[in-house]
Amino acid sequence: MATVMQWEQLLSTRRFKHVDGRIEPSRSLPGEPDAGLRSDFHVDHDRVVFSSAFRRLGRKTQVHPLAQNDHTHNRLTHSVEVACVGRSLGNRVGAMLAMDNRLPAGYSAFDIGAIVQVACLAHDIGNPPFGHTGEDALRVWFRHPDHARYLVGLSDAERQDIQTFEGNAHSLRMVSSLEMYGREGGMRLTSASLGALTKYPWTSDTFPARGKFNLYRSELDYFAAVATELGLPRHGQHHWARHPLVYLMEAADDICYAILDLEDAGEIDIIDVREFEALLTPLAEIDRVWSTDDPRQKCAMLRGMAVGKCVSNVADRFMAHHDALLDGEFAAKDLLAVCTGRVSDALSAAKELASRKVYRHPSKLVTEIAAYPCLATLLDILVPSAHAYISHPQRTLSPRDATHLALLTPRLEADDSLYQAYMKILDFIGGMTDNHAARLARQLSGVGLV
Fold first, then answer.
1. pLDDT at 358
2. How far apart are CA 267 and CA 69, in angstroms?
3. Distance between CA atoms of 67 and 69, rounded to whole angstroms?
4. What residues have CB less than 8 Å from 368, skipping those under 6 apart?
5. Residues 6+ apart with CB under 8 A from 355
């Protein structure tokens, strides 16, 4: 049966840029990629790693906000580890594709690994301060009935975007609009890397009940060009099929947070490390005597073996469902759902334990509760002032509003629409680290004035 998507298109190295409101192909810079030294996907990797947004992940929440323990993960260490697992998955799948003569000429198994690695590195780059709690805090503010007056004049689709801050959509916005070539195509990553990054290739109003999406209206035309280049089938006006390599990025993320979030919890004594050991021992299939009695070292060794088992099984499942993935008709929720019982059961048990003992732990809840007034303080200052500026016929401001908006980077422009103004505010706040957001909110409240 002929497949809808073809690997030759799905691995496209074409880059795109914005030119006077149009989306056009972007030529590589002279000497880029360096002849024989860096592939196009290695260029993608370096652009993500050297971006300021990626560096800021070092002070953003993974699970434990403002964690004091130096060994717990933040978004940066999480992203690096996910990228390692993703690269292993991609390399393994790439080798299987090559063995089956499915890999196009000119590509190697390592190219598949590099694409997945880039997507994994960038997958959390748009997360706001305080993680998923920060996402919800931004949504809650814009959905509050007292703030409805600030949304008058937006289209229904624009209102849906503004009221539904989504880290996945901001990750795509970060790499395609904000970082490197601001407003001119962002990092201008290859189409293949952008496809592998876009976990939810639809707009906020396509499936509003789901909440998850990758396409703000501001990036819709850009992604449409990428989707056409990749040959992603349309499932609706603003809805495309997933790129097959998204499933590997997604699996790498799920593996890491299921296993490593629990390892962190053991590190800071939220769970007993023996619970972690009992959970992973069946998956790791231990058949030898331990070389250490240190329970934390045991956990680290178990984690490595468990991740290896997951990588092997997920890659096998990808190839088993290859045709359905390329048809855009893969019916399961994700690849972990079709893994062997040993893998899926262990990861499900890990997530259940984390949900029961980690995510609702008092040490985490207090900081999460504080995230709502923290981000509300920033929005209380910026949104009314931006609304006053955009609504004024001459685009003038009172001294107080002008002082408020002087905080904003980048500044509002006279030709900005209300939607563009609010997106700049969400970019500004969403790009903050936990520490910066908490410190700025405290200063603006007057508590930190003296």
1. 73
2. 8
3. 6
4. 65, 130, 133
5. none
